[in-house]
Design a protein that fits this description.
Blueprint lengths: L3 E2 L18 E14 L2 E12 L6 E8 L4 E8 L5 E2 L5 E4 L8 E2 L2 E9 L6 E2 L15 E10 L2 E10 L2 E9 L6 E7 L3 E6 L8 E7 L9 E6 L5 E8 L10 E4 L4 E2 L4 E8 L5 E8 L7 E4 L10 H4 L7 E9 L2 E8 L3 E8 H7 L1 E2 L1
Antiparallel strand pairs: 1-26, 2-3, 3-9, 4-5, 6-7, 7-8, 9-10, 11-12, 12-13, 13-14, 15-16, 16-17, 17-18, 19-21, 20-21, 21-22, 22-23, 23-27, 24-25, 25-26
The structure holds alpha-D-mannopyranose (MAN).
Length: about 350
């Protein structure tokens, strides 16, 4: 598999994004949703900001208050044994009955625009900012599905009651309408197909079941994009392979001659995130017809291997022009990058079931 990583990589780093909040620093500009709009490439960045802490023993957790529309900051000491600071992304609570974690940063969604797909300018303000009680810990990892002039944007909505997926709609990337939560917690990595198939909308989603099951990919159908049903299990973890611990949809699926191609992420038990592909039947996307044995893209480049959370390539969107698949992806939960892959090479590399 030939992979052409852009010379400009990383395309956007935290240093390119001015903090929106006073006294905060941007620690991530990553996992962006991708769209083409008005002759430009839109990268809808997940921007993660955290309150600056002068003291390494003090960790601060920002929380959005929907009543005041302000952020509140919880200050915790790393000596406090009631909390678990081992994962830099979260603060665990070692108390019976506390089924949630604080996040060490708050994410919101901000647009970066480009004429050439390589050089991006970041908008001065957020586009989608937390706005309700299901988003008090932030909004993350957006995907964008274009249908005609309408762009559906959906993202993880994080709060103490769980991580679910919410939907908004825009036609101009200036204003949007909020359509509420479409998949209840715990669910992430929703991918809405860009057209109806046999009269139905389809979406992949990734629940995290607790008593039975694992973080694996499901598919559901809808008549209106808001109410989803007829859920089916789509594909799962594979012991001993690159996708044996967690998987989830990545880029918005696109149509090829051989089927719907989905570039998804898979992680190992030691949290190494790679991208691979799965091919679904054109007429019935609940049927898997082929899958990558080995990953297509692995976190090999320095900006993928090292960062806030190293060893991660995580795509939320591609642009497909003829045989060229431009895969935009978050690198190390820190930056945005892009690489080009050949569509025919991807299709030839799959193992057909
Ligand atoms: C995980 C990671 C974080 C994210 C939280 C909440 O811990 O993916 O980046 O903020 O989940 O979604």
């Amino acid at each position: 598999m030939k992979i052409y990583r852009y010379e400009e990589n990383p395309l956007i780093t935290p240093a390119d994004v001015k903090p929106y909040h006073d006294g905060f620093e941007v620690i991530g500009a990553f996992n962006a949703g991708i769209a083409e709009y008005n002759g430009e490439v839109i990268m809808l960045l997940r921007v993660a900001e955290r309150p600056i802490s002068e003291d390494p023993k003090i960790v601060k957790a920002p929380i959005y208050n929907p009543e005041t529309n302000e952020l509140e900051i919880i200050t915790l000491s790393t000596d406090d044994e009631r909390y678990d600071f081992s994962d830099p992304r979260t603060i665990g609570i070692n108390e019976v009955g506390k089924g949630w974690k604080y996040l060490t940063s708050l994410s919101y969604l901000r647009i970066a625009r480009s004429k050439d797909g390589h050089n991006f300018t970041v908008d001065p303000e957020p586009f989608i900012y937390p706005s309700n009680e299901l988003e008090t810990f932030g909004v993350e990892d957006p995907r964008i599905t274009q249908m005609g002039d309408e762009y559906y944007i959906y993202f993880s909505a994080v709060s103490p009651v769980g991580v679910g997926e919410s939907l908004v709609k825009t036609t101009d990337f200036k204003t949007y309408g909020h359509l509420g939560m479409i998949f209840a917690p715990e669910n992430k990595d929703v991918l809405i197909f860009p057209e109806k198939i046999n009269g139905k909308y389809y979406a992949m989603h990734r629940p995290v079941p607790k008593s039975n099951g694992a973080p694996e990919v499901w598919i559901a159908e809808s008549d209106n994009l808001r109410y989803w049903g007829n859920h089916k299990f789509l594909f799962g973890l594979r012991e001993g392979k690159w996708d044996d611990a967690r998987i989830g949809g990545g880029a918005v699926p696109f149509k090829t001659e051989k089927g719907w191609l989905e570039l998804y992420h898979g992680a190992t038990k030691d949290h190494r995130y790679c991208m691979g592909a799965v091919l679904l039947d054109l007429e019935d996307p609940t049927k898997v017809i082929a899958r990558s044995e080995a990953p297509l893209v692995e976190p090999d480049a320095p900006y993928e291997a090292e960062g806030f959370f190293g060893g991660v390539v995580f795509s939320c969107g591609v642009l497909v022009h003829g045989d060229v698949v431009k895969m935009y992806y978050g690198a190390a939960d820190t930056s945005m990058a892009c690489c080009e892959l050949s569509l025919s090479e991807i299709l030839d590399s799959l193992t057909y079931l």
